[in-house]
Amino acid sequence: MRFSSRTVGLAAAVITVVIWTAFIVVARASATGAHGGTLTPLDIAFARILGASLVLLPLGAWLVRRQRLPGWLGLSPLPFRVTAQIGVLGGLLYALLAYTGFFYAPAAHASVLLPGSLPLWTALLAIGVLGERIGRARALGLVLIVAGGLLVGGASLLRAFEGGEVWKGDLLFMAAAFCWSSYSVLVRRHGLDAVKATVAITVFAALTYLPVYSALALSGVAGSHLAAAPWREIAFQALFQGVGSVVISGITFTQMIRHFGPVKSTMITALVPGLSALAAVVLLGEPLGWNLWAGLALVTGGIVFGVRGLALKAPELIANSDQSVRAKA
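Request: output the structure for the sequence above.
Response:
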């Protein structure tokens, strides 16, 4: 059967939003022992990279051979220097910081601070690195995003004096978003193809993190739970975090861009903060206070305003930006 372009676009949009939403809920559930998770943050990152590598390393080798690219070790379609730069930020630090954050802060906080702060960091980095200017609509969007983040993260920082640890997760989420924004800006600065960049960060993570962490886990230095965890849990994390979050959502996001265009696609993904927060309430039993509701509303509105302002000013920039972040979960 051949489906219409509209049907394919709608299906791609639904799959993308579902995977991005599920990424936050699943990562938090995996970090909470009460929900059956036994793996550590470093273990989950290991499974993510392993799962993505099973698909993207063969793809990288095929791209290098077919297109005769001067890649790295015959696996990355990009030179070593670029592969290392984007690999550290988009392949390693983002995953390690984000997964560690879920062990401290609830999913609702991640819903606001992970996808919500991406436009903020990206705009600030684009000003300093790419020399971009911010229009009024985009500036208003960034103000709303900052206000939403302060409502959520500020409350946890105040509770830090009472001995709480949620603020640690909030800072880790913000740091993870900063790393992904830095990766996105590098992709735009070097004019990288989105598929090749995604393959490159996976190749770098696979060839650096997997062997090093395997050695540390076997020696007992890393405190890994891989040996004690059920194989089904490891397989699930490899399939969902690696194949699902990195590979499948990358394909569906690209397809969504082709049908709806970059502006509408980014507005569709603005549903993720609210949906993931509500899913955490229903599935994980997390509370959702007034500050979280307000923070979600402000961040979602800020994303919409920011995207509209950027689209009116420079449509080509939002297209490149969207493609560069298509592999995030």
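The chain has one domain: 5-324.
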